Amino acid sequence: MTTTLPQIRLNPAALWLSDGWIVTKRNLIKMKRSPDMLLFAVLQPIMFVLLFSQVYGGSIAVTGTDYTQYLMAGIFGQTVVFGSTFSGSAMAQDLKAGIIDRFRTLPMSPSAVLIGRTNSDLLLNAISMLIMIATGLAVGWRVNSSVLHFLAGIGLLLLFSYAFSWVMALLGMSVKSPETINNASFVVLFPLTFISNAFVQSSNLPTALRLFADWNPVSALVQAARQLFGNLGTAPIPDTWPMQHAIPTVIIGALVMLTVFVPLCVRKFASISSR
Hints:
- With 275 residues, this protein is an all-alpha fold.
- The protein has one domain (33-273).
- It has 12 helices and no strands.
- It has helices at 12-32, 35-55, 67-83, 85-97, 99-104, 110-138, 147-174, 178-194, 207-214, 217-229, 241-244, 246-273.
- Helix 10 crosses helix 12 (246-273).
- The longest helix has 29 residues, at 110-138.
- The termini are far apart.
């Protein structure tokens, strides 16, 4: 007489979450074994904080607030946007190294690879945020709002970074080599971060650049962070919808990016995995 063991059938959603967590764990272990990547990821925002606050701060005047208070939200916004490029470069590197081909042989959800990649980069951005907060406090930055508003500001920055990492992941799967992703991402990121209100008030820019900055999603992100951190002071707010309604603009923008780029990334990954 043979005994048949009962078969355990897991819910597809549970399997998907499990696959995503396993890939996330794999990326975190890889990050742990490459401490230089984490080191340079957190050194860059520290350098920007010290450079702009201590070197350029005395030469840059902003209306209605102290420059250090004005600056930090811009550094936060720049860092989380730059941090999203890890998703693109890591996907390009995994494609080149053949890791994606190994994943193809496993009984796992294809989207789990993308979920694991973006989740681990979200954690890296969170670590960078903690270090930036400590650096900002050291140079005189202060949060002039409630704890809930402060946490909401951090959450909004991380939400935007997570959504934007899917954009970079698609770009990473679309280029021919990991070397290309760095140049391609900077073509996108430099205008978004530097033609914005991150470091200077948009009212000081020429007309064409001012219009771009006032409708720039990174400007809305920075404006929302300043508002939630209580760093606006009496600085004038540009009379455009994104600047007047910065918080809903960021939330809507993040949801739109997730709605558009998550399916595009899954489709692109399925396409390159079937080659």
